[in-house]
Amino acid sequence: MIFRTLVLGVAVVSGATTSQLPEFAQQYRQRMGGAIDALSQVVSDFREDAARNGLSAQEAIERLSSAQDPLVALRGQRMEQSIDRLAVLTRQRAALQQAGPFARLGILASDIDPQLASATYDDFEPAVPVTMEGAVAAGGGFLAAVLGLGIAGRVSGRLTRRMRRRGSAKA
User: Fold this and answer.
1) Each residue of 37-83: pLDDT tens digit?
2) What is the mean pLDDT of the chain?
3) Residue 169 is part of which domain span?
4) Range among 3-7, 111-115, 148-152, 160-164 with highest mean pLDDT value
5) How many domains does the chain have?
6) In sequence order, what DSSP letters do the residues of the chain get, joined into one string?
């Protein structure tokens, strides 16, 4: 009886926790939009500055990166990283926009930006799972906990019975 109550409690907590995955994904996408906007402005300004000096963005990066001044060289490397990150985030946003609600969770799990995920987690605010996606995620977490704990309980029960039989056979 205690084990069943424990399983139910863990399953409810697991379901409630996993029901927050769609909300986390939404907050991640909103933060991603802000990061893309900020990076786009920085990259656009850099490209304009390069063009004013008769250079492509790549030529400007190469010039900065090969400079003797360590600060200037570091700025070139950072700009290249910013351009690359903008491309990655833009590709990820397009994939998330084209995906259905459940596929978005899969994309997020397989192609998450660690820096963005960490910042999202730091500011994350849970929400009530009122969407079908949230309800299914909650149900999945609930069932996973029930099944996992049920299997663990049966295995431990069998092991306990075997140990008792062996102990009584020796006595």
Assistant:
1) 999 999 999 999 999 999 999 999 999 999 999 999 999 999 999 99
2) 88
3) 1-20+132-171
4) 111-115
5) 2
6) -HHHHHHHHHHHHHHHHHTTHHHHHHHHHHHHHHHHHHHHHHHHHHHHHHHHTT--HHHHHHHHHT-SSHHHHHHHHHHHHHHHHHHHHHHHHHHHHHS-HHHHHHHHHHS--HHHHHHHHHH-------SHHHHHHHHHHHHHHHHHHHHHHHHHHHHHHHHHHHHHHH-
